[in-house]
Amino acid sequence: MNRILSRGIKLIPIVITLLIFSYSIGLAEGPALTLRESIDTAIKNSVLLHGAKEGVKGAEAQKNEAFTAFLPRFSTSYSYTRLHETPMTTFTATPSSPPFSVEVGTRDNYNWAVEATQPIFAGGSILANYQYNKQGLAISRSEEERTVQDIVQEVKTTYFNVLRAGKLLEAAKQAVELLRSLRNTAQQFFDVGLIPKNDLLYAEVELANSEHDLVRAENSLALAKASFNTALRRDISTPVQLEDILTETPFALSFEECLKTALENRPELKAYQLKVNQAQSLVKIARSGYFPTVSVVGNYSKYGDDPDVSGSEFQDQESWYVMAVANWNFWEWGKTKFQVDNSLARENQSKDLLANARDQVTLEVKNAYLVSRKRKNRFPSPKRQSNRRKKITASTGSATRNRWQPPRKSSTPRRS
């Protein structure tokens, strides 16, 4: 009997494997969610994706702000000045005549001015700053793309975890039923004295272990459902019913093709490359401090001794001028050099981070490729599964018939 029990217990892993391929589960009442619907729901409800979209809006605003530096700036001002006394000047007609004073201005003075400034040359800092912010916008879009991919990956992972946990729960229930049947058979054999007490205890221990595995399978399914609801930003206790996916998708790409695709399309690699470009733009901005800045300024002003700036007897009502201005800070005790050194260090740091990211992606692709090959070799084709299932069914039926055969009479008395 011990041999029969051992043979039955050895069949349990095979039965579980068959159940994983054979059973589909109804996880809750109501229409089943497809994988596409789950992904769409998660993308629609994701706060991370909403935050990434807001980041894109902010980066686009910064790029537009940087572009305005190419355009002329206009400003206006209006001022009022009251002197402590009316401006006077003193004249002397002859050395013997007394001096006399003459007004040369007004005590109340109003001024209105409009000024336009157009930068002509700034050492390349304006263009470099625009390129920096333009690359920042591209980084934000890459981060948005990566967020979408992360959401899709999380939904797929939790989706298939629910299906897997449900199948394992069904397999655990079947295992409990099988071991309970073996325990009952062992009890009957023990009652008629065909097996010792140890064989009965062995069957009871295996049944208890399977019941413990059943509890763990139920908990795993509940946790998988909670994770799925969290990925979709639904209430954690929302009932879950998913469409089962049993079709096998062929994967025939080589490792080199997979690695090439990943290095070209992974959004985090695009972001790191753009950060390198940003660091190079910062170097250009820092080096612009070595050059002078040149701009053209145009000014139009109106004056007067009353608020409507209509002029006075001492000053014309309006005036204007155009001038070119060059400004060059040629000595700042090494400030510009230190800024350039800092920018170069950041550029080298960005290149190192890009190289490290490439290594990480290569490792991830290698691991995923090996896992896919392992699963392909582990799970046979449907035809081989069917043949194997027939063999196992025949073997199980033979073991069942042997287990239920009437015991032979023995002259050996039962040991108490």
Strand elements, count: 6
Distance between the termini: 17 Å
Portion in helices:
55-70%
3D shape: elongated
The secondary structure category is alpha+beta
**Largest sheet, if any?**
4 strands, antiparallel
Which stretches are low in confidence, meaning pLDDT under 50 for 5 or more residues running? 18-29, 392-416
Estimate what percentage of residues fall within beta strands.
5-15%
> Could you give the order of the helices and strands?
HHHHEEEEHHHHEEHH
- Per DSSP, the total helix count is 10
Radius of gyration (CA) equals 42 Å
Question: Care to give the gist of this entry?
Answer:
With 416 residues, the chain is of the alpha+beta class.
Name some characteristics of this structure:
416 residues, alpha+beta, disordered C terminus, 10 helices, single chain, four-stranded antiparallel sheet, 61% helix
Helices and strands in order:
Blueprint: H1 2-10, H2 12-22, H3 35-45, H4 47-67, E1 73-82, E2 88-91, E3 100-103, E4 108-121, H5 125-191, H6 197-231, H7 255-265, H8 267-287, E5 293-304, E6 318-327, H9 335-378, H10 382-403
Antiparallel strand pairs: 1-4, 2-3, 4-5, 5-6
Helix pairs in contact: 2-5, 3-5, 4-5, 5-6, 5-8, 7-9, 8-9
